[in-house]
Amino acid sequence: FLQSLQRSQLSFIALPVQLIAPDYHLQATAEDLEALALPSDYQPGADPHTACLAILTVADGAPATANLLAPIVINLKTRQARQIIQIDTGYSHRHTLAVSEKEDPCS
User: Fold this and answer.
1) Which helix (H) or strand (E) holds 35?
2) Which residues of 1-107 form beta strands (DSSP E)?
3) 3-class SS of residue 17
4) Please, which residues have CB within 8 angstroms of residue 21's CB and are 6 or more apart in sequence?
5) How many CB atoms lie within 10 A of CB 14?
6) Which residues pair with 11 in a beta bridge?
């Protein structure tokens, strides 16, 4: 969960994007990197310095979806975060989460 420190009733279900799309590639702009206090040649991904989370949407009668178009990137050292909007990447803000029939999601 991501939860607001100012308004505790505001929270979001989130998952690391790499769990949803293992080959996910984030394209952060120089402005995004500066706002996160990251080097200008750095690209956040599956590393120990940043977390890249997708906000999930769960609705009755519909499959859960993940926003891969605009993930939340967190600089784990400074705890600064920013929603990075991807442009022309082909990612969707409603990427359907699939559960394999071979897997028991509750085990």
Assistant:
1) helix 30-35
2) 2-3, 11-12, 14-16, 50-57, 65-66, 72-75, 80-83, 95-96
3) helix
4) 68, 95
5) 18
6) 3
CB atoms within 10 A of CB 8: 8
Which residues does residue 83 pair with via DSSP β-bridges, in sequence order? 72
Give the tokens for residue 102.
Answer: 């071979």
**89 — pLDDT class (breaks 50, 70, 90):** confident
9: Cβ–Cβ under 8 A, 6 or more apart, which residues? none
Q: Which structure tokens are listed for 90?
A: 């082909």
Where does the pLDDT of residue 48 fall: very low under 50, low under 70, confident under 90, or very high at 90 and above? confident
Rg (CA), the chain: 15
Gap between the Cα atoms of 101 and 89, Å rounded: 29
Q: Are 76 and 50 in contact (CB under 8 A)?
A: yes
Query: Which residue do the tokens 């995004």 mark?
Result: 32
